[in-house]
């Protein structure tokens, strides 16, 4: 899952969330470290949809305690959010182009480090009998 925030003239960092996002994780991994400082720094109001983690009691109480104003958001209206219109690859060709750009910009030092790790990877694979190695 990918999370990010936007406002006029600014944007947050992109956050990648592995696994299921529950209300506690939303508070701990998104609101507290990223959203709250961003809103306070720029004097903004939070707009998020009515996903369960967003409207859970723990999150609404947290936002109230942090003095974060929240825009009332009608149910079933996610398309009204401006972030839903931020360009992302719309088709395979655009995705290909984005991947090619990232590939071209990959530092050779990163590739060298990966090659240098092959012996460790092979040993770990043998020790795991072909199973998961953590690499």
- Largest sheet: number of strands, sense, barrel closure: 2 strands, antiparallel
Distance N to C terminus: 21 Å
Mean pLDDT over all positions: 87
Total domains: 2
DSSP summary, beta strand count: 4
CATH topology of the largest domain: Nucleotidyltransferase, domain 5
Q: What does the overall shape look like?
A: extended
Strand order of the largest sheet: 1-4
Helical proportion, percent range: 40-55%
What is the CATH superfamily label of the largest domain?
A: Ribonuclease H-like superfamily/Ribonuclease H
What is the number of helical segments per DSSP (H or I, 4+ residues)?
6
The secondary structure category is mainly alpha
Q: Are there runs of 5+ residues with pLDDT below 50, and where?
A: none
Look at the structure and give the CATH class of the largest domain. Alpha Beta
CATH architecture of the largest domain: 2-Layer Sandwich
Strand percentage: 5-15%
Radius of gyration based on Cα positions: 20 Å
SSE pattern, N- to C-terminal: EEEEHHHHHH
Task: Tell me what the structure shows.
- The chain is mostly helical and 135 residues long.
- The chain folds into 2 domains: 2-85, 2-Layer Sandwich (Nucleotidyltransferase, domain 5), CATH 3.30.420.10; 92-127, no CATH class.
- Helix content is 48%, strand content 6%.
- The strands form 2 sheets. The protein has a two-stranded antiparallel ribbon with strand order 1-4. Strands 2-3 form a two-stranded antiparallel sheet.
- Strand 2 and strand 3 (10-11) form a beta hairpin.
- It is extended and about 55 Å long.
- The two termini are 21 Å apart.
- The model has no long low-confidence stretch (mean pLDDT 87).
- This is Tc1-like transposase DDE domain-containing protein.
- It comes from Cirrhinus mrigala (Mrigala).
- InterPro entries: RNaseH_sf, Tc1-like_DDE_dom.
């Amino acid at each position: 899952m990918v999370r990010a925030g936007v406002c006029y003239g600014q944007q947050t960092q992109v956050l990648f969330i592995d696994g299921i996002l529950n209300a506690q994780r939303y508070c701990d991994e998104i609101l507290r470290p990223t959203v709250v400082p961003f809103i306070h720094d720029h004097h903004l109001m939070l707009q998020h949809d009515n996903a369960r983690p967003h409207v859970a009691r723990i999150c609404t109480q947290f936002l109230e305690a942090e003095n974060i104003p929240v825009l009332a958001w009608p149910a079933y209206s996610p398309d009204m959010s401006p972030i839903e219109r931020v360009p992302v690859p719309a088709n395979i060709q655009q995705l290909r182009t984005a991947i090619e750009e990232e590939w071209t910009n990959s530092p050779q030092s990163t590739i060298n480090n990966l090659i240098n790790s092959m012996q460790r990877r092979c040993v770990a694979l043998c020790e795991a009998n072909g199973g998961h190695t953590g690499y």
